[in-house]
Amino acid sequence: MTPDYGKTFELWREGAGAPWGAYTHHAFVEGLRDGTLPRAAFLHYLIQDYVFLVHFSRAWSLGVVKSETMDEMRVCAGTVDALVNHEMALHVKTCAAAGIDEATLYAASEQVENLAYTRYVMDAGLQGDFLDLMAALAPCVMGYGEIGARLAAERTSDTYRDWIDTYAGAEYQEVCETVGTMLDASVARRIGTLQGSAREAALQARFTKATELEVGFWDMGLRGA
Ligand SMILES: Cc1ncc(C[n+]2csc(CCO)c2C)c(N)n1
């Protein structure tokens, strides 16, 4: 069953169409599910993803700046804390076991798909308001929640169990629900009803573009270093 991350996300997910399936059922994801993803591709992805998370932490920090309520500020500040103090630990631990230290991760050169995605999100927030930023951030947060939940139920191998458990776990699923609930409140406060509103199309375009950039990120992972 697909998890429930709120009605705004549900609308955007449906509105994204085919790219959402391409993202959540990408060959890279299926390789995590059945263990056939080559280790080198996984490590390459993790190194790029570490740098990705550095820039995503900056984008969530911009969310603090763009917040209009204490609830929004708490969610954004909490996400920055979770990212920089906890979530990146999975990357550091897995890479350390392969002989790659954190300084090397931090200094890794970004591939263009990685660069494009994080700067797109950052610019959505700089140019627009809190909702523009959230529409660009949502595919990443909820997409991994959905992928993790499905892979935990459908995995046929233990090879990438650590990765799957991180996103399938109750703690991360709760993050997705909290962000989804906040998002619904943020939309209600600024727009009222999203469907049929003047901002619906532009916000959907942000969400869909970020989803397509997630597909590009998996492509990059499969392609290797
Ligand atoms: C390419 C890429 N997309 C999404 C995520 C997942 N992710 C990014 S930030 C974050 C925490 C937000 O609460 C999560 C789960 C990732 N690691 N790499």
From TrEMBL:
Tell me the protein's name. Aminopyrimidine aminohydrolase
Q: What class of enzyme is it?
A: hydrolase
In alphabetical order, the GO MF annotations are: thiaminase activity
- What pathway or pathways are given for this protein in its record? Cofactor biosynthesis; thiamine diphosphate biosynthesis
Locate the Thiaminase-2/PQQC domain: which residues?
20-223
The record's GO CC annotations read: cytosol
Q: What does this protein do?
A: Catalyzes an amino-pyrimidine hydrolysis reaction at the C5' of the pyrimidine moiety of thiamine compounds, a reaction that is part of a thiamine salvage pathway.
Q: Is Hydrolase there in the keyword field?
A: yes
Keywords assigned by UniProt, alphabetized: Hydrolase, Thiamine biosynthesis
Its Enzyme Commission number(s) read 3.5.99.2
The organism encoding this protein is: Litoreibacter ponti
Q: Which family does it belong to?
A: Belongs to the TenA family.
Which reaction does this chain catalyze? thiamine + H2O = 5-(2-hydroxyethyl)-4-methylthiazole + 4-amino-5-hydroxymethyl-2-methylpyrimidine + H(+); 4-amino-5-aminomethyl-2-methylpyrimidine + H2O = 4-amino-5-hydroxymethyl-2-methylpyrimidine + NH4(+)
Q: Which GO terms describe its biological process?
A: thiamine biosynthetic process; thiamine diphosphate biosynthetic process
Q: Which PANTHER family match?
A: BIFUNCTIONAL TH2 PROTEIN, SI:CH1073-67J19.1-RELATED
One Pfam family hit: TENA_THI-4
